Structure of Alanine racemase:
Amino acid sequence: MPRPISATVSVSALAHNLATVRRHLDQTAAAAAGLPPSIWAVIKANAYGHGIEQAVAGFSKAQGLAMLDLEEAVRCREAGWGGPILLLEGFFNPSDLDIVDRYHLSSTVHHRDQLDMLARARLSRRVDIMLKLNSGMNRLGFSPAAYPAAYERAALLQQQGTLGSVGKMTHFACADGPQGVNEQLSVFNSVTHKLPGAISVCNSAAALRFADIAVGSESQTHWVRPGICLYGASPFADADASSFGLKPAMSLSSEIIAVQEIKAGDSVGYGALFRAERAMRLGIVACGYADGYPRHATTGTPVVVAGIRTQLLGRVSMDMLVVDLGPVPSAGVGSPVSLWGEDGPSVDEVASAAGTIGYELLCALAPRVPVTRDA
């Protein structure tokens, strides 16, 4: 019998979350008497751990997909996706352009070497690009001073038949916090406002809280790039995903594989981090950090056993963790355990208890955990 741990990915939840974001954007655009933006559903990092093929199915109504990895882009095409695919970090070597060309991929261009590679490439078709501006995050992108010349060169490559559309993009550093987007947006607008082409500036947080800046017009197309919210987790520390009508798309489940009775003063797990103040009944769960559960989750992290909410006790081991069965006296070996997801705590709750974010937990699901697809 296989070890009793598994993850379930709900394609219907993925589709629901995309529709929820779509509805929010449509309502914002209608209120502003403008056109709603198109959506690039971001499916980088194996669709945030949910699986490329599941994401292609769940996001079938998106206008485009966005990711980093060329291999994952090819998988999208092989799974039947015929729409635009944007490489968020672009290409890295001249040979990558063979794949970009063969599979009709669009690319972010964020430094001069990429323009050089495009100028030298022998392509069978034009490549659509988004020219990235570093508006203040200081990761990728041309500086405000260098951007006009980069755009001019891209426009020349467009005239020469190498490039198709040339759009403009940036990435916000603080869309999820009180600082907001105004400072970076001001830089972006001041540099790009006279340059033609589609615009893409909104990630999950900006799409949910600042959707008005992505409202398009007859002369200006906007694309948003939602990621984590499409998987039913929140980009915000002060608002949970359910408050936006989003559903968890991944559920991590296991079972109780042993029960221990301890007395007052007994400790639990490595480092004896938890010591009982009274007699307790403990459940040992087949899940640990080698499965992707966070090792630094602390005592008190929520866990649901047999439909009842309880808590983690002590340190998470490689293959096991311990839960308090006090609230669940009927639980025993074989009782179901929900670590996060539809029938348990949200992945954001678990992440918060571990001092991290839900993105990391979803992306860190280990290959040894079997994943099933739930339509």
